[in-house]
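name: query_chain
kind: protein
chains: 1
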Amino acid sequence: MKTLLTFGGPNVAPVYLSTHGFAPGWSGKNSADLSQDEIAAIHVFSMHEAWELGYDEVLEGREEGRVNPFHLAFLHGVPSAMFHCFYRKGRAAAMGQSQVSTCSVKDSPRAIYAKALYQVFAGE
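structure:
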């Protein structure tokens, strides 16, 4: 699990540290300075960390409503949408509802990732 130090802004990624004290390459970077590999790493991070967070919060008896570390405008909102989607999927899995869809079709991981790749490569 990672530790959030600073929430992200419209053009800046959140600042995270791993349990070993290392930050991901994208941590705290301006969106204009991110490489394609770092953008892909943000998406993997959003899927993994959000799912784990949602799952753990159910096990700990916490209510839904965790704050999303990614700003809604950062990278066209894709990391924020992915984080929210996988957070809800983690919560559903912890409640034994793994077959329940917790994201809309437009927020499916495949659609989100495809949109992000298109926007990155199209230069939007």
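note: The mean pLDDT is 81.
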